[in-house]
Amino acid sequence: MTPDTSAPPSDPDSAQLSDPDFAQLARPGESRKDPEHLRIRLRDWLESVLPADATPEVTSVEVPAANGMSNETILFNAEWTESGIRAEHRLVARIAPADSAVPLFPTYDLDRQYRVMRTVAAHSPVPVPAVYWSETSPEPLGGAFFVMGRLDGDVPPDVMPYTFGSWLSEAPPEARRRLQDASVQVLADLHTIDAPDDRFALLRPAGHDPDAPLTAAAALRAHIRDQRDYYRWATADGPRSPLIERALDWIETNMPEPAGPAVLCWGDSRIGNIMYREFEPVAVLDWEMAALGPRELDLGWMIYLHRFFDDLAALAGLPGLPDLLRPADVVAHYFDRTGHHPRDLEFHTLYAALRHAIVMFRVQTRTIAFGQAPAPADPDDMILHRATLTAMLDGTYWPGIGVQP
Q1: Full residue range of the structural domain in which residue 107 is found
Q2: Looking at the 3D structure of the chain, how many domains does it have?
Q3: Torsional class of 395: left (φ above 0), alpha (ψ -120 to 50), beta (otherwise)
């Protein structure tokens, strides 16, 4: 097997460590951490996928201390000979976690991420990392993994949150606006990939008639069903959340009927998953939540995740970035780039807050499982943005901050 060079190489050194699960809050005690052991395993594996005369050598391995819970990340450099030329490659391996790590999600289909990224690179201008190989066997590194290239750039940090003070908060307003518009453009480019139902058939909801076009409404219903299933899995052996269950009921009762076909949704569409250079995206990362659905699925997530960080800044008595990713600005720019006017954003931002609540609930379950925190008397206290989700359900959140979604 030879490397895939159909996409421009990219190098999410720091962005790949910026997981949506806020991994710093809970982390398994055991990990794949011995660089020399990994170096030998990676070299042996490269020998199995490269031509016989490539003579690969892994020259360095780094296991970042901030490795996440969703996937594990290994940064490594390797050199090999191809077409008579010996060259060095800066690479990243993303590895599925071991079951003993109390995984964040019930399944980790790394090969699906690999294939989604390849297809996005082939059919859109969205800058995704160059993906080299997908390995579905856990034998080489202890879990399925894929390998992609690395670039250098800036990523809005999660810890401390970029709204607390960062290269982004210190940038002039016009630079932040450039970053905002370029980030919304990423969504516009993804959502206008033609024939998404066929190109991303691997993302079709289970049970959907393969001969019938997938509508945005049907995809949204399936997405919500999957969220309830995820919540059941996440709470199967632990406490349940009355707030999350209230929100799930609200979502199902108030679900809109979006018009038109489903589009490709990135899923984890937040600026913390984009690497920038001069405030322009150079790598769009973390595709494990990719799905087919309505456009507003991505728009609501992008808007809400910024609100999450800005609300944290407000709680800390900091000014935050209230001028960034305001719903009206996102809607206006998205409409200008696509001709589609986003609808039902109050629903979709609440749905994003609910999805985030389930993830955070699972994160705290892990924290407790690893003995890093005691279980609270009220399970809803395991949701960091409990007040926001409650206010959204009560209809007081957006009026409280003087913003119309």
Answers
A1: 15-149
A2: 2
A3: left
